[in-house]
Every structure is written in C-alpha cells, then in structure tokens.
C-alpha cells in the first residue's frame, strides 16, 4: 500500500452528488461531473492491503481490490485498469449500479467507514475509457464454433464478450429494439447514462460479437431452429416475471407494474416519446415495494413532477448501524440507506405522511378504491408487526392516482414459449434448472443469470456470465482457460 497510515489519517469521502433542486430538473447522472478524480487517490490510500482481504469473498467476481487500490493510490491508471478488467467485463456498470457488498466485507469496516471501493472502481473504468485503455480485444483466431446468447443484460453481454474473445462466433438475441436488458429500459438514466452502455457495446461489436435486436426467441424465431443453427445456446433472459399484489381493487385503472412504468420514462430519454403515457406529472403516486426498483420509480416520478410520492416498505425501518448479532461482519447488513432518490424525496418533502424520506415502513396494502370511472383514487394500508401480521387500529388511507408495484420478480417470463420449446426443466420457483456446469437437461443448452439464479445483483449477473462462458467453452473445445468465478450454487455470504 502506498500510505500505510492512510486509513488512520484520511476520512472516507464519497463522490459528491449534484444539488437536489438541480438534478431533479434533468435526467443526467446525479453525481457532480469531474468531482471523483480529485479525491480518489487519497481514498484508495485508505485500503489497508489486508493479509486476508474479505472484500474478495464478498464480491462474487473476485475483484482484485487491494491491488487496484494500491495502483490508483500511485496513479498508475493503466495497470489499475488491467487488474480491474481482469475480473470484471463492465466495471463502469457495477461502479454505478452495484450496492457494493465488497464494502460491507472491507476489513476496515469492522470499526470504521469502509474504503470507497465502488467509487474507486468507477474512477478506474471511466479513466480507462478516457485514456484509451479499453480498446477492443478481438480473438487472434476463430474456433469455428457458434454460440447463441438469448438476452442482452449484464449476464448475456458478459458471456458473449468472454466467448467472443475465446474465438467463438457469438450472436446475442434481444427481444427489445435496443440492447442492454434492464440496464437499458429498467435502470433510469440518472443512475447510469446510456452512453456507458453504448460505449461497451461498440467495443463488443469491434471484437466480433453479433447482435440481433427485436427478435424474441420462441416467438419470432423458433427455439428449435436456433438450437439447430448453433453449437451451443445460453439462456440469459433474466427474471422478468413480476410478482403480483392480489388485493381488492387491483383491477382499477392507474395501477401498474414498475416494469411497465420505467421503460416508458427511459424511452422518453431515448427520444422515442415526447411524454410517457404513464407520466406521474401532477399525480399522487404510491409505490408498493421498498427495494431498488421502487427507488428507481421514486426518482423517476420526482423528475416527472408528481404532486406527491410515497413508497411503502413491508419491513420495519432498519437501524443506522449493523446488528452484530444478526448480521455480523463481513455479511451485507440491512441498514438504513439513503439513495439519491430518497435524498431527493426527503429534501423536496414529497411525502409528508412518510416515516423517513418518502418511505412508510412496516406498511402492508389492504385494498384499493377508485372513482366512478374505475380509476384508482386511494390506497388503504395497515401497519404490520415482525411476523407481517396487521397491527389493530393502525389502518390509514393515502391518496393515489398512480400506483406502481415494485415487488420483485419470480423467474423468467414464459409467454414467448422459449423454455417450453427448448424443453428445459425448471425449478419449483420458476427458474431454469441446471447442473454444476451451468448446463440444462437439454444437451448444448446452458442457463445463467437471473433466469436460473433468481433475482440478484448486477455483480452476480456478470459473474454468472463469465462462469457460464467458461462452461460453454469447455463444452465446445474440451478445455477452457476462461475464468469461472462462481458455481451455480454459490450464494452471498450470510450468517
């Protein structure tokens, strides 16, 4: 490490966000442009170069965090980029979107604020692009083997890039008109501007990866045809089958799934629409679900000028500090976190009835009521205890012209017929079954990412893509030098 006392002399400092009043007027990323590089070398100095770096185990990619922290502290950006890209295909994505389980596993976090690993990662990635360190890496020779990857989210893209670089001819099939999966139409631009995605896609095209957009395998192309055309197929469609809320009044107009709402706002940013047909402008909005997707809806509704926005979370409000008995270091703790969207809601006071920022904690929806035209007008809720049972006398009503359901996803969508046509076996929860080598019951067909693992984090998605690529390479050639950071059965660190 460059400064052995850095963790004692330098306090944690994170990438500054733009003022709330400024950033809610646009869709640009929330951070102050150019404010990261001036602070990041000193922040990297805080890394203790631990004898046993638990940040490695907390990250499914096995990122070489102490190594690139040391290189950044010495401002050796090219070497830092090499070490970062050795384990992560898309660090500019994870540096913006990952909740950073590596920081929860930082040894410094035992009794001090963790190293800003996520910020360092993002700085390296952005600097690599600015300095031309992320040039395309096409294969020296082709193997003559072909692979179809179904889905262009982080799993599909990681698998495709690894397999292309190994010399296979890879085609990525995407049902939407643009590539990126949820990174394109699910993640709002204020969290990650799409230029980062386009830049990486350009690199992949230059390396030789082929892309087929607006093609739903199972509907536009029969799965059997795809299977016959390619030597191997990777299912990386994600988990897009959203969970429902079965309460009275669900049929009312104005109640939508989050993933019906967010893509429209993203299409406005892409220039496809002048205004979203589900715009929250002037409406009282209630978001049911306390996770990241709900926070994305919150930030989007604020930028659309909603009259009010409230987010319901069925869990009790967590504390500000880790509970060492229930969630000891180095596990990822459930603590009170203030995302950019929640900071905006707090400062703008968009939900006066909320417990904190825009959230009502320990809240469960009982029913919806509407007007004579069949449009939702109110949401009735009740507080719940730790067992999620209603607490008597705590019922209340919120005005609601637009309700967004952000309750997570149960597995891949089966409407296009892909899984049935391929004949792959699924687990009871709806995900694709696979063996220890990421292979399904159908020879030559593999499954990775949320489609098989279930809803997870972007860092796990990329790790799955890299691992399934190694499995496919082994299947095609009999051996593989591609890294395989995880197995299908690995899970995040828990008690």
Automatic annotation (TrEMBL):
GO terms for molecular function: iron-sulfur cluster binding; metal ion binding; oxidoreductase activity, acting on the CH-NH2 group of donors, NAD or NADP as acceptor. Keywords: Amino-acid biosynthesis, Glutamate biosynthesis, Iron, Iron-sulfur, Metal-binding, Oxidoreductase. This is Oxidoreductase. GO terms for biological process: glutamate biosynthetic process. InterPro entries: 4Fe4S_Fe-S-bd, DPD_II, FAD/NAD-bd_sf, FAD/NAD-binding_dom, Glut_synth_ssu1, Glutamate_Synthase, Helical_ferredxn. It comes from the Bacteria. Pathway: Amino-acid biosynthesis. Residues 38-69 form the 4Fe-4S ferredoxin-type domain. The keyword Zinc does not apply. The keyword Cell wall biogenesis/degradation does not apply.
